[in-house]
Amino acid sequence: MPDTIPIPLSRPEGFQLVHTEVMPIRWGDMDAMLHVNNTVYFRYMEQARISWIDSWGVGHTAEQSEGPVSATAGCRFKRPRKYPGSVEVRVFAGRVGRSSVPTYYEMRRADDPQTVYATGEALFVWISNETGRPVSFPGPVRERLWGNQGSAAHATW
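Request: output the structure for the sequence above.
Response:
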């Protein structure tokens, strides 16, 4: 497996929409060029991903022995964005593995939902907070991710 995974130019086949989050574009999100700074897009993706995880109702805190991390993250910037406005982040998930699930993101202005301003990807991995190594998704998370499909080998959205 390569150390880096190329960011797809379009949503990968088999990825399905699992969460949508709308957030305000803040004045402080802009840089000296008066557009949203490139690092802020990663925050938008992070917040949407965490809100998706929160919707599972399984909790995730630093005190827990296991939890989610991003193993990879990337972003393709397609059009500049400016304040004011709101960003709509669509989270798509791919095939679920034993301890990971790939995610893909589309970022749009809430008032211009037909235009994709940026896309991104992240590999979401469940790890042991003690060892930092991947571990199998716990029962409640596995049930949420796999639903009635029974096993990771068949888990798709």
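The chain has a mean pLDDT of 85.
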